[in-house]
Design goal:
Layout lengths: L1 E2 L6 H18 L7 E2 L5 H10 L1 E2 L2 E2 L6 H6 L1 H28 L13
Parallel strand pairs: 1-2
Antiparallel strand pairs: 3-4
């Protein structure tokens, strides 16, 4: 089973599946490859999030679609604000773990 990584367009994911299928079949003739592909490109995924998807619910084609579209600027500003706040928190947290003697070292896997 092959599940493609994030930020991949559906066309690219399908192309990868087409390229991998013969290699899998040549390696093991009893294998039956299964590929899970979906549209996950940066512009399409984030665009849907901005315009008409909220919390896993798509409002596209529903009576509430106009409201989802109307709050698009606020969704974007919220994303930017959350990104800035998370960056600050993660930076402080990383410095705390690196500089505090005796603190747990969750970054050891990165050689820190």
């Amino acid at each position: 089973m092959f599940i493609h990584g994030g930020l991949v367009s559906l066309d690219k994911a399908n192309k990868t599946a087409e390229d991998l299928r013969p290699m899998i079949m040549d390696d093991d003739s009893t294998a039956y490859p299964i590929f899970l592909n979906w549209e996950a490109g940066l512009t399409t995924s984030y665009g849907r999030h901005l315009i008409y998807e909220r919390n896993g619910i798509s409002y596209k084609g529903t009576p509430a679609a106009w409201a989802a579209l109307a709050i698009t600027p606020f969704v974007f500003l919220s994303d930017v604000g959350r990104g800035i706040a998370n960056h600050a928190m993660n930076t402080i947290r990383a410095h705390f773990f690196l500089l505090t003697p005796g603190s747990p070292r969750p970054l050891r896997s990165f050689g820190l």
